[in-house]
Amino acid sequence: ENEIITVRSDIAKGAQLAVYGVSGDSFGLIASTPYLGHHRWLAPAGIADFDGDGRPEIAVIEMPHLKGDLVFYALTGAGLTETARLAGFTNHRFGADEIIGGLRDCGTGPELVLASKDWSRLMIVGWDNGPTGRDEGAFSKSALRAALDCR
Predict the structure, then answer these.
(1) Which of 5, 110, 118, 151 could form a Cys-Cys staple with 48, CB 3.0–4.6 A?
(2) Whole-model pTM over 0.90
(3) Could you tell me if 47 and 36 are in contact, meaning their C-beta atoms sit under 8 angstroms apart?
């Protein structure tokens, strides 16, 4: 079924990942993560079947300016369940009006194109018995575009 996946924020509680959809005869919130805390943010990274189980996972960067954890969630009967976590990534610069990077599939399955936490390296995250990151060289906007285009 179709769902709407979004980031909700509260000035005191911070941000959370939220999934809205149809439940019975009504539309509303069907699952959410806990709030991250006062002035703490998360940035969506991509949605795909990263682990090959036939169901999509939602990838986000928790606190892209401070912590830089790439977190994968699955929508289950119990709600949003964290399935994996990998430290050291970002996709947003403080004050920027856009999230960089995104999702690609160059023929070997879905991969995320991100930056290292310090913005020095272009990182590709795939899945091999869990999320695995590999360094693709120095980060630049042209390298980012090329990586998203599978070049």
Answers:
(1) 110
(2) yes
(3) no
